[in-house]
């Protein structure tokens, strides 16, 4: 990884292409979300100019500030952090994707806020796939109920599932977790309909994006390998 974020971006795209080649997938199926958390606006602007479209933040305030300071209409903003329902109102005017919805209450709030902005917000349902104590996302058993509720929404489109694997370098721990997310998607694909279309699997980060792509990821969320190490 270099200090040059444009070189880093190219390197990541190459990693995505090689991973796709290895498993016979088309790199155009993969959306790269550049996770800019804690990094300066200048970095984001530089990447936007180089054609990068999707950016992710994991804190509501950071996303709000970012969307306010960078007005480029081509940017698509993703919220990827733990979602508190009372924070939806700070992002609904501009956020394009909320990847971390894990309960009906949040969907209800997104629907209300997106509706009053006259917008549609794309949503992924976050599933707890890791074995770590600090769990995030809903349990797999809760998914069906959430999707049935989502089908009737007008301003909220559920477009897939998101998961974070256990934080480890052991890719063979991570692989079955990604596989679990994909299987869960396949098991619920019959609930497609209305505002539900489970085409996306958001999984894979700097350390495990190849495995995620092999297991069916359509979105990878990459921070460190593009922007460099963070201080937390
Ligand atoms: C920080 C973060 C990422 C990116 O992680 P890296 O290891 O820096 O690539 C991806 N997803 C979520 C939810 C994050 O919070």
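Sequence proposed for the structure above (232 residues):
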């Amino acid at each position: 990884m270099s200090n040059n974020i444009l070189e880093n971006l190219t390197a990541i795209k190459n990693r995505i292409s090689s991973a796709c080649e290895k498993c016979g997938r088309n790199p155009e199926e993969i959306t790269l979300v550049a996770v800019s958390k804690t990094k300066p606006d200048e970095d984001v602007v530089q990447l936007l100019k180089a054609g990068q479209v999707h950016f992710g933040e994991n804190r509501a305030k950071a996303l709000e500030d970012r969307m306010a300071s960078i007005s480029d209409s081509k940017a698509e903003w993703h919220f990827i952090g733990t979602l508190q329902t009372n924070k939806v109102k700070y992002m609904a005017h501009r956020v394009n994707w909320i990847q971390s919805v894990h309960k009906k209450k949040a969907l209800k709030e997104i629907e209300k806020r997106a509706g009053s902005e006259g917008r549609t917000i794309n949503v992924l349902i976050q599933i707890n796939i890791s074995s770590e104590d600090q769990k995030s996302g809903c349990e797999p058993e809760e998914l069906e109920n959430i999707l049935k509720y989502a089908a009737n929404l007008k301003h909220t489109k559920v477009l897939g599932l998101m998961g974070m694997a256990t934080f480890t370098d052991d890719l063979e721990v991570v692989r079955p977790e990604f596989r679990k997310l994909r299987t869960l998607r396949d098991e619920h694909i019959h609930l497609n309909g209305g505002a539900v279309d489970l085409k996306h699997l958001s999984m894979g980060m700097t350390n495990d994006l190849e495995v995620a792509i092999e297991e069916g990821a359509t979105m990878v969320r990459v921070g460190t390998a593009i922007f460099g190490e963070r201080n937390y």
